[in-house]
Amino acid sequence: MDKKQMTAALAALDNFAIEIPSWGFADTGTRFGKFLQAGAAIDTADKLADAGHVHSLTGCCPTVAVHVLWDFAPGQKTSEVAAQAKKFGVKIGSINPNLFQDQHYKFGSFGNEDAAVRKAALDHVRDSVKIGQAVGSRYLSLWFADGSNYPGQGDIRERKGHFEECLKATHKMLAKDQVMLVEYKPYEPAFYHTDIMDWGMAMLLSKKAGPRAKVLVDTGHHYLSQNIEQIVAVLLDEDMLGGFHFNDRRYSDDDLTLGSIDPYQIFRIFHEIHKFSHDTGKTPEIAYMIDQSHNIKPKIEAMLQTSLMAQELFVKAALVDVKALRVCQAKHNVVDAELLLKNAFFTDVTPALHEWRRKRKLPTNPLEAHRKSGYAELIAKERTHRRKELGLGGGGGFA
Ligand code: AFD
Ligand code: MN
Ligand code: MN
Prior knowledge:
Layout: H1 3-14, E1 20-21, E2 29-30, E3 33-34, H2 44-58, E4 63-67, H3 68-71, H4 78-87, E5 91-96, H5 115-135, E6 139-142, E7 147-148, H6 156-173, E8 179-183, E9 193-194, H7 199-209, E10 213-218, H8 228-237, E11 241-246, H9 263-280, E12 287-290, H10 299-317, H11 322-330, H12 334-345, H13 350-359, H14 366-373, H15 375-390
Parallel strand pairs: 1-4, 4-5, 6-8, 8-10, 10-11, 11-12
Antiparallel strand pairs: 2-3, 7-9
The structure holds alpha-D-allopyranose (AFD) and manganese (II) ion (2 copies).
One manganese (II) ion binds next to loops.
């Protein structure tokens, strides 16, 4: 790295933070089963402790996304959860209502033909908005499993109308400083149609809902060949990009650690964002969040891998010489234009990462520091003992 690159890299590091999902620390699995981990979080306090541990090592994960049903036990005070977060050195970030697990959501939530179910869903969202206001969270992050499994099962246009109405009602609930993020997903768990199936639908519904509704791009929620950075560039241009759920995938929503399959794609997404800022002089407000919950890797190691990979790719993308790129584009100099991206992607930014961490008294190798800390062994022992006391089987992470 030369001096100019080092300066750009350190500036990028100062402006990068990524949110950790509470659900990433609890035992989870696939529909074929769970592989329980002794150190998996049992309750919300465990999840916040683990998130605080990750942030203490990386310095770039100050907030924790929470799932209303899983993280706020019935009757638990929101102030208690906020205080627990503070105790562990983190803050509550986005609030995720759970509109997919209760039995009455079998045929959908906001899209359900039954007005009583839509009302129940809106009541839950209202409670979630209130939790957000109580803990000072800016983002309400909405994902819907809604859709159908067979042709003819649901009226696609009627369901679209229900979503328009319910998302508008949701927008009305928001405080002035709150933003609602509308996430899309092409399929799963619905296998014939998903009501919010792609970025276009999420943008359309957000625009109809109100000015503080934006699109949430989950990198695992695209068909194999989709050009995600093109979607990001269009959403940026329309001022409709609200945030990301980062993970990686080989086939679809596989919940793999970021960059384990295609780091260059994530680099190209960040490049579009850096280029937008350079071209417009604006720094768009984007919620960078992780959405993963690992079945195979040790959970804390997987969370460290994703957050550090995101940080590194964000910095690499900041090294693209966008001025020179524009000249190459104007002259149709295809090879040099591509090389400007490739050279940045292959630049070793370790010196900047180490410098940034040294200045903040952070370990230069956070994963190694975690392994040396004994934290994993400590929680495995303590939580195994507590599970026995509580008469819980293994796992039991969804409080
Ligand atoms: C699942 C869904 C979606 C949602 C996440 C957290 O596919 O990505 O954001 O759970 O609720 O991954
Ligand atoms: Mn997601
Ligand atoms: Mn997902």
